[in-house]
Amino acid sequence: MTPEPSLKPLQVLEGRSPLVLFKRMAKEVPAYRRFLRAHGVKPEKITTTEHLAAVPIMSKANYLNKSAFSDLFWDGSLKAPHALTSTSGSTGKPTYFARSHAVDQQSSTIHELIFRASSLEPTESTLVIICFGMGVWIGGLITYQAFELMGRRGYPISILTPGINKAEILKALRDLAPQYRQLILAGYPPFLKDVIDEAVAAGITFKKHRVTLLFAAEAFTETFRDHVAKKVGLKNPLTDTVNIYGSADLGTMAFETPLSILARRLAVKNRKLFADLFRGAAKTPTLAQYLPQFVSFEAPDGEILISGDSAVPLLRYAIGDHGGVYTFHGLLERFRANKIDLLKEARKAGIGKNVLELPFVYVYERVDLSTTLYGLQVYPETIKEVLLDRRFQKFLTGKLTLVTKFDHEQNQYLEINLEQKPKREASKVVRAELLAEIMKNLREKNSEFRELSDFLGSRSEPKLVFWPYEDPLYFKPGMKQPWVVR
């Protein structure tokens, strides 16, 4: 007989504080010993958490790429068991990351917290369909491992791993999913949106299930959240749409919670609060909570630094993202300063019992995920919002690629490449309406663009290029969408 999962408080694995991690790394990781010597740091003088601010920041360029692979591991040994995944940077050369089994256990704990905060029942049959790539990348493998470990702890979870094979996913939604009471779809946001749109168009219904959507690898807007929630028929997007902040470097690092989603939605509707909370940012960051005993965050000068123990431990590691950090009470205080009681709002939203007293991190997409037009930044997010309009959803998938180009007279202009839905083609009228709405949104959301368009007039209008569905130039199926090409 299958045991029911325990509903006792989670037994959260013990981690190491950054100070303890530093002391052990300084002794037991050959590459880190050399790194500290090269920067003139004497480990014995780092005795308090405050002293860690003097420890040099490490990065892929100055640490990982400058060290022998084995020297990055504890004791400089590859004999300890670990899992390997890979990323491919702008050069196309892969970077391999190793993670310990403890990181998989930590990820599983986070996924259990997500499950418990959702509308899912812990005793009902649950099908997890993993729509992340299942090759050398981390997303699919660590998600599989997280749910597989939950199954071992008694949760009635069944897992299917079609990866990015859309035909197999749709087949499973049609033929397999009806056998289960509950459904978790996990995948990269634009790909999962494609799957949901195509499933609905094919007559597949989600209404018979309790459904939770699990995203990772990319930020998205609250408009996007509402769109997919409506398509699937979710009653509460605060509990059943979750974006995970993870990396190949350290696995699952932070995760949206009902409270963080509520806080973000309130900020989006309140410009003063938004500017105060996210330090005057032009676009909406992901706001997540994290377990500091697993991974800790800091953000000096707005640069996200992470510290965490794994097969390759990292300390004050610049992951390439930007944002900021709040303590739990620090975020509540920021809301109070704007005359909002966040916990009261949580109770009104029906999520009072789902509040986790954990610190927050807010994260912007990388700085290179924008393009420039006459020196100002243009972000895909502003155009993505327009594409979710019902008028354009009939013809377009919502994917786009921004490119800054020059005409024959060397005038700079913005090209927006758009993917059309299968066997659909936008009419001239629809294209004109789309351009007008994009211009309207750019002018409303980007004050610099508004000034530029006042000066340039029609020359500031982007050029829209419409591509067939899954055209390989910008919309190759299964790959991370290149929102910006430089």
Can you characterise this structure?
With 486 residues, the chain is an alpha/beta fold. Helix content is 35%, strand content 23%. The protein has a six-stranded mixed sheet with strand order 4-3-5-6-7-8. Strands 9-13-12-11-10 form a five-stranded antiparallel sheet. It has a four-stranded mixed sheet with strand order 18-17-16-19. Strand 7 (241-247) and strand 8 (251-255) form a beta hairpin. The radius of gyration is 23 Å and the shape is globular.
How would you describe this structure in keywords?
alpha/beta; about 475 residues; Rossmann fold; five-stranded antiparallel sheet; GMP Synthetase, Chain A, domain 3; six-stranded mixed sheet
Give the total of domains.
2
Q: How many E-type strands?
A: 19
Oligomer: single chain
CATH class annotation of the largest domain: Alpha Beta
Task: Give Rg in angstroms.
Answer: 23 Å
The name of the CATH architecture of the largest domain is 3-Layer(aba) Sandwich
**Distance separating the two termini:** 57 Å
Percent strand equals 15-25%
Q: How does the major sheet shape up?
A: 6 strands, mixed
Mean of pLDDT: 91
- What structural class do helix, strand and pairing data support? alpha/beta
Number of helical elements: 17
Helix content: 25-40%
Shape: globular
CATH homology superfamily name of the largest domain: ANL, N-terminal domain
Q: Examine the coordinates and then state which fold CATH places here, giving the name of the CATH topology of the largest domain.
A: Rossmann fold
Major beta sheet, strand line-up? 4-3-5-6-7-8
Low-confidence stretches: 7-13
